[in-house]
Amino acid sequence: MSNFDAIVVGGGINGLVAGAVLGRKGKKVCIIERADRFGGMASYAVDGGPSLAHALYNLSPRALKDAGIDVDRATFTGQQIDTVSLADDGNHIVFKANGVYWNDGSQHPQSKAWCELIQRFKTYGGLLRQLAEAPPPGGHSASLSRARLAEMLRLAKVGIGLKMLGKSEMRRFLQVVLSNVYDIVLDDLPDGPVAGMLAADAIRGAATGPRSPGTVFNLIYRLGHGGTITQPTGGMTAVVDTLVDGAKAADCTLLPGTEVSRILVDLDAVTGVQTADGQTLRAPLVLSNLASPLTSQLTGPSLFDIEATRRIRNIRARGTAAKVNLRLKDASPLPGLKSEQKDARLIYAPSADYVEAAFNPAKYREMSKAPVIEALRTEQPDGSHWVSAIVQYAPSDLDGGWTQEAQDRLAQITVDTLDCALPGLREQITDTQVITPDQIATATGAPGGHWHHAEMSLDQLLTLRPANGISRYAFGPKGLFLCGAATHPGGDVMGLAGRNAALMALEVQK
Amino acid sequence: MSIFVDPKLGLIPSPFHASLAEQNRAHSWYDWAGYAAPSVLDSMEFEYFALRNQSSLFDISPMHKYRIAGPDAAQMLNRLVTRDIRKIKTGRVGYAVWCDEEGMVIDDGTLFHLGDDDWRLCCQEPMLTWLLDAAWGFDVVVKDETHDVAGLSLQGPTSFAVLEAAGLDVAHLKPFDLVKIEPDLMISRTGFTGDLGYELWCAWDKAEALWDRIWQAGTHQGLRAIGYDALNIARIEAGFLTAGVDFQPVHATERLHRGQTPFELGLGWLVDFEKGHFNGRRALLSKQHAQRSLLLRCDVEGFKPAQGALIYNGRKREVGHITSGIWSPTAKKNVALAHVRMPDAQRASRLMAEIYTLEEGKWDTRMARLTPVQGAFFAPPRARATPPART
């Protein structure tokens, strides 16, 4: 039996950050991970293929800082990458930080409009980030407590930030923030690959189409940390290793390959956890990186109010993004791409209408026949070359289930789609890997294989994330906290959920 | 909860409807959970005095009944209700309340411990979806038996003799005991009158035969079928609460803060903080000493029933209202149940009820002093005697 001040169940990104934050505050922390390696969903991979997450765009410097990790490390700064929207006619479009260009280097006519739109969303993202970097408002009873004052100040800052936008811009913000990306983008742009790229970024990982309400928010969320996309040096494994180092530096005890079989509670207060191999670890604080239904099952449903269990059962988390990894025969460049585009993020989304049409089958539990794809070329440590693709829509609850035949079909559709825009790609592929949402769910415990553990929709945000009554991380018995991507502010390899939960746990413990 | 029910659907006949209709000379039916239930059969006074001096039959089939069975039944129920149900042994019945996450009472009812891992919950409000939610994560099966199990309440000092005459020996049954006396018949020594009495439970299709059997046995015991009006007087005398009248089942309220905690209803004795977590426990811990109002049992000055009267403290400040008020024919007292806000409820010496009277076209008010009392207004020892007396 070992004694700790806090135990973190689940060593994903948020679990590692939460552990490190607590460790740096002088707590004796133990981070337990079922798998043999840390990183959870971000670094999940099969047979040496690329990991689920393949680029960073939302990792929070605030979370890293509180976890004691140097933000400017090469791992994170890595290589900033452009986005290339693939066209079947080979006339691809390149999105750079300063504008949109044709394949031949000339400026795209919608470059200015795109820049303005992105800039606007980045401004909004900056405003909303202040909300993300703190627990959702509410929950203080004493009106003059320190935490309450800090919260009032924070909200005031958001309010002032909004005011500072100016009257018309503030009105516009309030107009667009709850709206759908399709309408807002097509207000400023004709439908085509530029609009398609924005639509695709707005729905990635979500069970929504561009016309679904709240998708503008998803896009703003993506741009919340500036929108710069980097391919981390050494891949996602290196990112996870850095976070693991951070946790170790904060004197956390790391227990990989250990499964928690029970969260122990006595007199309505957490006392520790029991592991599947029979160990009992004691701590008055348990942070669970797992989804809330799983957490409540580990703790025992009788310890939660009936309303709470009802709400967590109704959290919507339907994964729609599958990972398709295409193994390339060698290091030769992808056909049809210029040399400076070889590491770019490739998007296949010819128009916003295309993205919406791709969503239609998912409503009826079918996979898209013409999917939206985000692909990156990566080299694995063993020297193998891959195209790492996120393919939507591939719903977790596919009609008939994700049989081998269905997986093969998805791989086929992915190759066919990419091969249209990159003719000859097919010949370079020697092998394919398909990681379906239900596989992700089984391997990582993320409900529905959803990468935010819970849909990022307006009814599941802020004080309603993951559900009403548990938005401030505390869940059921005293000392039990949720710290996973299902909590505010959400996932995306961001780390803020874990960091917020850790700070909240410290505040409540005081 | 204002659930719209199409009036064209009409009311459902209860399993005893034929027998009741035959005796319902007043033709006075009311809607009880969708069933046609008698409020008065011929005269409320006759029915009431039959209940207190002879015996009475009242159809309780419209009550909601839920079977909860399975290895985790006790655990699931213990999380649901505020009391420790492990103390209700097999063959016993327990009164219980259950609360929402804010500690507000959802409903009260009786829990029948039928056998190992086998329980029945009997209550006023529809509770199926709540019970299904409560069952999540537990190895139990919840079954709605509302329309499968018929119930008949036989109450009054001769009720034991009636059962004896019907060939049913329940001499050994103590209050809150239950027994499966015949394959198709369960009898519990329970009731809503505070008197000696039994509740008889059988399958829906056996109901008419049961009625006939009891009716014939009651010929020499002054047995009378009664409606709700008579029962209501008896239950107020016993100090029992009616959902929707003396407290507002919180799931049925639409306005904020209409719910009440068990402590506010004087049911704090049903709350066991030591048994482990139960629904609303965390909220109740912080609310147990912060009652917003209290339910008081009051002796009312004068003889005018105080139903619906507003309550004042010192003739000026309005501090509450009477939820149930009657002239008690047996206690020979004017009695009432009242909600009085805090802290006036604890400084109760100057509470006055403003009673409205309508006498032959003339409305009037009179101020009546309220004197809070402890316990029931009428609690005869015969209700508890075992074996019970025959008359």
TrEMBL record, chain A:
Show the InterPro entries listed in the entry.
Amino_oxidase, FAD/NAD-bd_sf
Q: Per its UniProt record, what Pfam families does this chain match?
A: Amino_oxidase (PF01593)
Taxonomic superkingdom:
Bacteria
Keywords on record: Oxidoreductase
Which GO molecular function, any one, fits this protein according to its record? oxidoreductase activity
Q: Where is the Amine oxidase domain?
A: 15-494
Q: What does this protein do?
A: Probable oxidoreductase that may play a role as regulator of mitochondrial function.
Its quaternary organisation is:
Interacts with COX5B; this interaction may contribute to localize PYROXD2 to the inner face of the inner mitochondrial membrane.
Name the UniProt record assigns to this protein: Pyridine nucleotide-disulfide oxidoreductase domain-containing protein 2
Q: Which organism is it from?
A: Falsiruegeria mediterranea M17
Identify the gene encoding this protein: carA2
Automatic annotation (TrEMBL), chain B:
Q: Name one Pfam family in it.
A: GCV_T
Keyword entries, A-Z: Methyltransferase, Transferase
One GO BP:
methylation
EC numbers listed for it are 2.1.2.10
| GO MF annotation list | aminomethyltransferase activity; methyltransferase activity
Q: Report domain Aminomethyltransferase C-terminal positions.
A: 304-355
UniProt domain GCVT N-terminal: residue ranges: 29-275
Gene3D superfamilies per the UniProt record, alphabetical: Probable tRNA modification gtpase trme, domain 1
Q: Which residues bind substrate?
A: 199
Top EC class for this record: transferase
| PANTHER family tied to this protein | AMINOMETHYLTRANSFERASE (PTHR43757), AMINOMETHYLTRANSFERASE, MITOCHONDRIAL (PTHR43757:SF2)
**What is the protein's name according to its record?**
Aminomethyltransferase
Source species, please? Falsiruegeria mediterranea M17
